[in-house]
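Example 9 (inverse folding). The structure is encoded as follows.
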């Protein structure tokens, strides 16, 4: 357990001495592994059955739609009910739903893939804010930044492992069902781990009030009012949303930049992706050890300015090696942003509002990401891929500048 003075730095090894945190973390890594198994297997399967880029895009949109439709509403339920129970129900639902993918063995059954993909995405809209809101109930406030840094780092690692394992299984066996069966097992393991969490204080919203549409809307508006009346909270969410406006298009155009502009073989693309991954893992591990030395607001600003600069510099690369370097440097900036924003969302609001705050952040950033991705192709055709990278990096820098002034205003109220 953590028993040092309140001002003492938190070491990652101390976090793992907290049983509840350990169970939450174990549940996270196996479910992250399962998520990456499912996502890659679904894309490969629909490509195998249809060979259609439109079908791939349709699947991606269908999985994102629940975050837009149910994202804000899910926060009300996360704040109303026991968050551990919501996570357990989500894990069990995903473990059963993913098995239905095994039935998809012909183009005529692709509709099953779309349906289950939508349901999986819907479940995730409840699971993610529940996990975020639960974390402050398990560790001291001063341990949240290192805890979120560990979560960021291990999420990247296990997502990469999941993609690798899914690719190997499908490549060697020529079958997709073993991947879905393995993913189902990971969700059952996550369920077993979260089930071990004990003595979590519940902070339900007026638990005896009936859940009507009017009740949900009132609680939703109350949560949004508190969220956006707090400059630090509002600044974090707005800055992250503006960041997604820049990053969404960049993610879509990375392949065209490497393959079409730089004329590099597709075999290099794995190395390009590895550059950002390595940077993210190194930075997350370092931040977990040094988190106590920095204020989350400062980390957000510096991280955004750095990430925006390095993304913009990608546009100047004349060799793929420079792309790898700039993406590595971008990866170094990601954990300070994501872990710090997560920590701000967990510490700046009362316990009974954390679900709605987290859900609002997820919904707005997802909306911004989808808008950016939708505009990527049009912009690239109109002004060129390189200039889109400049604009994307510029938007991230703008987000950093906005965050700086909003945080400054929030720290010095008049």
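The amino acid assigned to each position is listed next.
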């Amino acid at each position: 357990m953590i028993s040092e003075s309140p001002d003492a730095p938190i070491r990652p090894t101390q976090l793992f001495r907290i049983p509840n945190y350990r169970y939450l973390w174990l549940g996270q890594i196996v479910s992250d592994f399962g998520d990456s198994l499912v996502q890659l297997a679904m894309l490969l399967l629909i490509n195998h059955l249809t060979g259609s880029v439109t079908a791939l895009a349709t699947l991606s949109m269908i999985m994102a739609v629940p975050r837009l439709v149910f994202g804000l509403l899910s926060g009300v339920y996360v704040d109303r009910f026991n968050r551990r129970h919501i996570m357990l129900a989500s894990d069990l639902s995903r473990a059963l739903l993913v098995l239905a993918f095994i039935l998809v063995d012909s183009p005529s059954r692709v509709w099953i893939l779309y349906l289950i993909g939508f349901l999986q995405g819907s479940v995730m809209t409840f699971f993610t804010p529940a996990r975020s809101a639960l974390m402050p109930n398990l560790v001291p406030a001063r341990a949240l930044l290192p805890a979120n840094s560990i979560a960021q780092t291990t999420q990247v690692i296990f997502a990469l492992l999941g993609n690798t394992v899914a690719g190997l299984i499908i490549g060697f066996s020529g079958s997709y069902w073993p991947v879905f069966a393995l993913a189902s097992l990971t969700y059952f393991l996550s369920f077993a781990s979260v089930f071990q969490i004990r003595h979590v204080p519940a902070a339900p919203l007026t638990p005896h009030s009936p859940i009507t549409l009017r009740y949900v809307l009132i609680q939703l508006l109350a949560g949004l009012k508190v969220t956006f009346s707090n400059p630090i909270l509002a600044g974090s969410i707005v800055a992250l949303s503006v960041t997604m406006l820049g990053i969404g298009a960049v993610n879509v155009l990375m392949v065209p930049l490497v393959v079409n502009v730089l004329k590099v073989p597709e075999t290099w693309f794995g190395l390009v992706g590895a550059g950002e991954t390595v940077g993210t893992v190194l930075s997350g591990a370092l931040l977990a050890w040094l988190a106590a030395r920095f204020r989350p607001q400062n980390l957000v600003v510096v991280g955004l300015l750095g990430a925006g600069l390095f993304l913009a510099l990608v546009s100047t690369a004349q060799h793929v090696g420079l792309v790898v370097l700039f993406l590595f440097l971008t990866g170094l900036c990601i954990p300070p942003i994501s872990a710090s924003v997560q920590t701000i969302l967990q510490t700046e609001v009362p316990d009974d509002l954390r679900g709605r705050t987290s859900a609002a952040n997820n919904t707005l950033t997802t909306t911004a990401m989808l808008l950016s991705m939708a505009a990527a192709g049009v912009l690239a055709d109109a002004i060129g891929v390189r200039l889109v990278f400049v604009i994307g990096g510029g938007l991230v820098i703008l987000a950093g500048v906005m965050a700086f002034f909003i945080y400054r205003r929030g720290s010095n109220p008049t």
